Amino acid sequence: MQIKTTQYTIRIDVIEITGRLEAFTVSDLRDEQTRLLDNGAHNFVIDLSHTEFMDSAGMSALVSLLKQARQAGGEVVLVKPTDPAAYRILTLTRFDKVFQMADTLDVAYENFK
Fold first, then answer.
1. Which residues pair with 100 in a beta bridge?
2. Which of 2, 35, 58, 92 has the most CB atoms within 10 Å of its CB?
3. Model confidence pLDDT, tens digit, residues 44-56
C-alpha cells in the first residue's frame, strides 16, 4: 500500500483601498497590481469596505486586474464598500454581476476554497 498526502496553500493577496479611488490616485493602485502580478500573484481580494468614492479610472483598474488575474488562472473578489454611494456605483455599472462580491473579508476568503 502507498499513501500520498499533499497539502495545497492558496496565495491570496489582499489590497485594501481606503478613501477615494479616482483618476488622481489610481496610479498607486495600478503600480501595486503590477508589482503583485509580476511576483506571481493571481488571486486577489480587493477590500473596498473603507472606500468612499470610485470613478471610472478606478473601476477601469479593477477590470484590468480581473482580466489579468483570470488570464493567469486566478480570480478577484471585491469586499463591498460600506459607503452607500460607493456601493451604488458598483451596482449601477453592474460590477456586482461581473465580480464576485463579499460582505466581509472573511467571506471573501471563502470564495477561494
1. 77
2. 58
3. 999 999 999 999 9
